[in-house]
Amino acid sequence: MAVTLVTDRAPRRKVGDRHHRGASRWIVLALVTLAALAMLVPFVFMLLNAFKSPGDYSSSGPLSWPSEFYTKGLTTYWTEVDFPLKFWNSLLISGSVAVLAVAVSLFNAYALGIGKVKGRLWIVGLFLLANMMPQEALIYPLYYAAKQIGLYNTQLSVIIIFTVVQSAFGTYLLASVLGTFPRSVLEAAALDGAGKWTVLRRVVFPNVRPTLAVLLIFFFIWTWNEFLIPLVMLIDNSTQTIPVALASLQGDRLMDAPTTNAGALISLVPAVLFFIIFQRTLSRGITAGAEK
User: Fold this and answer.
1) What residues contact residue 65 under an 8 Å CB cut-off, 6+ apart?
2) Which CATH superfamily is domain 81-291 in?
3) What is the pLDDT of residues 7-23, one digit of tens each?
């Protein structure tokens, strides 16, 4: 009888715990949903004002519904800033930085996480500190250095700068991951006669490919949204990126709010499409990292 009572009571406790966990999950889900809706509010305002005429914006304000479907702001931004050229500049810089920064991060992390480098922890900590340094502290040295070597007002200067900046974070993250790489796998590869390059290409790279894909997506979006360094380093219209072109619509005392919102809407579309296209890759990379 005692055994029967114990077996009867155990499921009751589990059911209670399950209901308790279920209620907590619903509360967390509700809070996350409210936070997501709050984050969408600025985008809703941007969408409303992008199709609103300047007169309608001045008379009714930014919170009203547009009285007409006004598209001149979109065409004005497209033609005034030469959006196709700015799109190509942003795509060239962001894509190059993403690929180069991932490659540099992998090589650095391979040396620090798997290679026998003295003072590895100090070097990884240095990369972490470099990643935490604000861009305002770097802009003046970078500006004068670019002037001296003749790279000022070129996309190459921004590509080099952001490759170094992004690879600092990538090196710190990958070095932590590769530091826990199974030594037995590396020793087995060494016994089979694999050199360091073969180990990197055939053993390490396939295992960290999901993490590299996540870094590639993050580096691309982060570089796409950068503003301060491109603003200082790229002064010619033919070399500027989309965020810099969007800021050029605003003057000292005058701002065309509908055109600015229309430009922000157009500028947002490529980054959103890139994220949607690679969303599954990002999810697989994060899931694979969690499983490891």
Assistant:
1) 48
2) MetI-like (1.10.3720.10)
3) 444 455 555 554 455 67
